[in-house]
Amino acid sequence: MRVKFDRDTCVGMYQCVAEWDAFEKNLNDGKADLQGSEEEDEDVFVVEVPDGEEFDAKFAARVCPVDAIEVYDDDGEQVV
């Protein structure tokens, strides 16, 4: 499972930070950061979800008010 995070879309509500430890507040930019991620495109970051953290990753995506977070299963199908 992997997460794709569009940081440009992020508006800094930080609801994802409360739901999954992989997200952290970046108060300087007013946006969240996705720890351990790699930049796939400009301001689009991806990271593999560690075992046992799938629920938290999905919930972080669900609570994002601007849909800046997408979750994909191992087959590449979007699940959130």
From TrEMBL:
InterPro entries: Fe-S_cluster_ET. The keyword Iron applies. It comes from the Archaea. One of its GO terms (molecular function) is iron-sulfur cluster binding. It comes from Halorubrum lipolyticum DSM 21995. Pfam families: Fer4_15 (PF13459). The keyword Oxidoreductase does not apply. Coiled coil: none annotated. SUPFAM superfamilies: 4Fe-4S ferredoxins. This is Ferredoxin. Keywords: Electron transport, Iron, Iron-sulfur, Metal-binding, Transport.
